[in-house]
Write a structure and sequence with these properties.
about 190 residues; mainly alpha; about 0% strand; disordered N terminus
Amino acid sequence: MKASLFLAACLTIGSTASTAQNVPKARPAPNAQIATKIDPAKEADIRKLLDLIGTKAVVVQTMDSMTKSIKPLLTSSLPPGDYREKLVNLFFAKFSAKSDVEHLLDLAIPVYDRNFSHQEIRGLIEFYQTPLGQKAIAALPNVTAEMQEQGRKWGEQLGKDCMVEVLAEHPELADALTAAQRNMQSASK
């Protein structure tokens, strides 16, 4: 069971890491995949917009947050032992070393291209250069963090409430859960 949790954690990290890996000399030129599809002027404006709104800092913050949230899961999924902390720390050191924020930004270019016209990109640039736009940029990390925390608390409480209701509606499952918990406690003694 713990091995499968470890595998799931690695796959989760791996799926994120695979988009963020920095593979020296093997990585295509930043615009190689998108240059033929995206107007160079529009691409330049998209990059200007991404820079203006601080996308790079948000990506770094998100990756740091992800690491902090996944690290305990990964640690607890491994069997206890003196090796565990060192293995997890070395894994995250390797993950951080291979993370390439610029590559993630390159991946954002076609997403913005598909979702916004060139005129809309220019309009966003104009907006984010205004005082209100600058305030939105400055406030967004705090707003996002606060919303994530509120969402976490809400989801946690909702999950507890739903489990209590399901167990109340299905006493046979509540009895089975109690028996399983007793068996687990007996096995760990």
